[in-house]
Design brief:
about 5% strand, mainly alpha, elongated
Amino acid sequence: MSKNSIMSLLALAAAAAVAVGCGSNAEGGDSGLSTSSLSKAEYVKKVDEICELGQRQMIAEFSSYARQQGTPDNLVDPKLAPGIVTVLIPAIKAQNEEIENLGAPAGDASEIEAFLNARRKVVARAEKRPPRNIFKFGDEFRYSPNKLATKYGLKACVY
C-alpha cells in the first residue's frame, strides 16, 4: 500500500475527529450548546482548523501505532483494530470538546448538534463493537455525519 493511500485512509478515519464528545447524548438530547459570538463563516473556519490539526495529529499517532504493531503498510491488518479505540477515539473526543467549547453561531445550534450527534453515534458503535479495521470505521462517517457537515459548509471535517 502506498504512503499516499495510507495517508488518505488515515484522513478518512480522522473524519471521525470532529465527531464525538459534545454535551448531548447519542440519542440527540439537549446539549446545552452555547451561542457563540462567531459568525457562521468564522465558525466554519475555526472548526475546519480544528479538523485539519486533528487530522495531522491522528495520522501521526495512528502511523506510530501501526509501526509499533509491525504493520505500517497494511491498514487492514486486524492487529490495528485496537488502535481505533485506543488512539483514534480519544483524539476524536478531545477535538469535539474543542468544537463544543466554540458554541454555535446564533440560530445554528440544532444543525451543529445534529452534526456532532451523528458522529457521536458512530463512535459509540465503535466503542461497543470495535471495527475490524480502519476502513470499516471510516465508512461509517460517509453517511449522515459527512452529509450534515457538508450541508453546514464544513470542508476539512468531511471525508
